[in-house]
Amino acid sequence: MKLSLLTITNAVHVTPLTWDLVTLARGLGAEMVVAHDVPPSQVMPAGVVYVPVTSKGYMESVLDEAVAACSGDYILRVDDDERCSPALVEWLKDEKYRQSDSWHFPRVNLWKNTSTMILNEPLYPDWQTRLTTKALAGGRGAIHSQAIKPGARAKVCVEHHQFLVKSLDERRVKNARYEAAQPGAGKDFLMYSCPEDYYDALDIGYYEHGKDPLFHRWTSTERLR
Description:
Strands 1, 2, 3, 4, 5, 6, 7, 8, 9, 10, 11 and 12 form a twelve-stranded mixed β-sheet that branches. This protein is α/β, with parallel strands linked by helices and about 220 residues long. The longest helix has 14 residues, at about 170-180. Helices cover about 25% and strands about 30% of the residues. It has a single domain (about 5-225), classed as Spore Coat Polysaccharide Biosynthesis Protein SpsA, Chain A (Alpha-Beta Complex).
């Protein structure tokens, strides 16, 4: 059964995390599909399926189009500010995903550096359904809408680098775009995009590669105001 890796991006410059995903796809012998909302400044490497799309300012508006371009029986979708953890890479190599048609992963929201993470709920554990059979991969048109079928819970995580690669101002702009496109979508998900504007303080813990992402040690509290 074939696996497709899919990323949907509007970055003018293809991010290093997306290049990492291309490398991962090659290592897995998987198909790599990049759905791009703007013409990229770089030429896509050989073997990458490039899909030009025109979104309404959010990923879900072109999800079905991107999924249709995938030829795999299973599709793993990774955002352009995310990375598959080393444990997830090994899990993919072992083809553990074949045990279910839908998988739910804890997403680790990294903070300040790649060794610390946010522990506040709901940013921890930030469950995301990201790997499904192709038949279950689309069908969501609204911003932040949930997958058709809740997934089996995997004990390997997706790393979220959003707070490392995007400034607070950039994240506020994105949040405002979501709110303009779909009233409530920005306000209701403020804690995910701009925790600095939502929480009074953040609980910070160690992120240890290879360890179960559901068990982490609290290290400190960072006061935001």
